[in-house]
Design a protein that fits this description.
Distance between the termini: 22 Å
Low-confidence stretches: 1-7
Mean pLDDT: 93
CATH architecture of the largest domain: 2-Layer Sandwich
CATH superfamily of the largest domain: Impact, N-terminal domain
Radius of gyration: 21 Å
CATH topology of the largest domain: Ribosomal Protein S5, domain 2
Length: 210
């Protein structure tokens, strides 16, 4: 039964390689789509805040995201536009391109003419679509993600083990208590954890599999 459950986990998923933009203009309003790879809600909040600062004169910043290999975590936000006229069309484009671990924002600079709900849906959808199409869609391998904290004394040996494995280090901090955030292929996880088992200062927490 356990083996059957494991087989249901996708081994790859489609996402965006980097950040890309798209532009749509309608009756004086300008809609700037920004599409980017993003792994979780905390990172999404940081990116949305940054975009607001960069476009502080814009009337609206509507957005949508979808996370997880099973694409079950998603959210859309209209940011003051009529209900379902902005966030939902943006999310619809993420779904249409079958993407996950993606955040898309569309910034609107108001041109003085109301577009109506139908016009807004088309504008936000088109800006999001253009941003995706101007980017690079890639197929990512699903990996286990971990955070690791350990003493500075154990740092050299633990780093040797991690660097000698198939793990990718996404974040590292070296102080009295060291910190790593890593990603590793599912099939290589067990071997890495076995090699790290004897380090008493080491605490490992699994973030997820995606």
């Amino acid at each position: 039964m356990q083996k059957s459950n494991l087989l249901k986990i996708p081994t790859t998923y489609k996402t965006l390689k980097d950040t890309s933009e798209g532009l749509y203009k309608e009756k004086g309003s300008k809609f700037i789509g920004i599409a980017t790879y993003c792994e979780d809600e905390e990172e999404a909040k940081e990116l949305i805040s940054r975009w607001r600062n960069e476009h502080h004169q814009a009337r609206h910043l509507c957005w949508a995201y979808r996370f997880g290999i099973n694409k079950g975590l998603y959210r859309a936000n209209d940011d003051g536009e009529p209900s379902n006229s902005a966030g939902a069309p943006i999310l619809g484009q993420i779904q249409s391109f079958d993407l996950t671990n993606v955040l898309i924002g569309v910034v609107r600079y108001y041109g003085g003419v109301k577009l109506g709900v139908g016009g807004l849906i088309n504008a936000y959808r088109t800006a999001a679509k253009n941003a995706i199409e101007n980017g690079i869609i890639v197929e990512e391998v699903v990996k286990d993600r971990f955070t690791m904290t350990f003493s500075y004394m154990d740092m050299p040996l633990i780093m040797d083990v991690v660097k000698g494995s198939e793990a990718t280090i996404n974040k590292q901090e070296f102080t009295n208590d060291c910190f790593l955030r890593i990603a590793i292929r599912i099939e290589a996880t067990e071997q890495l954890l076995e090699k790290l088992a004897d380090f008493t200062s080491l605490k490992i927490e699994k973030i997820g599999t995606y």
